[in-house]
Amino acid sequence: MQALLVSAIVFVGLFGGVCAGMFGARRLREEHLSKETQEAVKLGVGMVAAMSSLILGLMTASVKGNFDTTARDVQQFATDLITLDVVLRTYGPGADDARKGLIAYTQRMLETTWSGGQAGPHENGSDASRGTPSEGLLEAVGRQIRSLAPATPVLSELRAEALDRYKAIAILRWTVAAESVTTVPPVFIAVLIVWLTLIFVSFGLFSPVNGVSLVVFFLCSVSLAGALFLILEMSGPFDGIIRVPSDAMQNALSQMLQ
């Protein structure tokens, strides 16, 4: 919703700026629209356009980098879940409770993060209809692994490996949680909107008032508003329309249930 609202503000600002420039040009005296004035305005606006392009590029690179990093961490997270499940399965019946807890945790993560839940991977709230929150489920798995009493050296090695895998999962879980709350600084967005509006006002000052120019500027405004929409959408890897895919976690759950 925030991304859509900002995009609407950008569109209104840009297209409104063009219309305001066209309307204002008709009320200016002829010397204010001379070639010398146009050259001076183009020079100043060119500098602003260069800075706007730089800011847009930095914002895009930042959110895209964070989005890709989160996607890789989710993939690694799913891989660690599968590996831990394999270790617990190899351990034998003594680790069945830990395996069931791991499966329940994976299901809860899918529900809260990709199936309409609002809490995301750092969800801590309780759900009376579903029982323990995801954080509690994962902690319970850790306690069950630590309570294992291996009777042979082989089982001791499996318990140690399971603990290592559990610790890696716990660390990666909080890493993904931290990455999921990355936001674009509002100051960047506000300054960018002002700069882009100024550029479009200058376009309107020296553009002819006809259908072609209005359509072109309309499409340009939509395009830039769409660019801001994509940037803001990618800044929240688990929110909105553009999300990190759940394929890796779905595959991990299917492997556990086999």
From TrEMBL:
Record region (Disordered): 114-133
Keyword line: Membrane, Transmembrane, Transmembrane helix
Transmembrane segments: 44-63, 187-206, 212-232
Keyword Iron-sulfur: no
Domain of life: Bacteria
One Pfam family of this chain: Bestrophin-like
Keyword Transcription applies: no
Protein name from the UniProt record: DUF4239 domain-containing protein
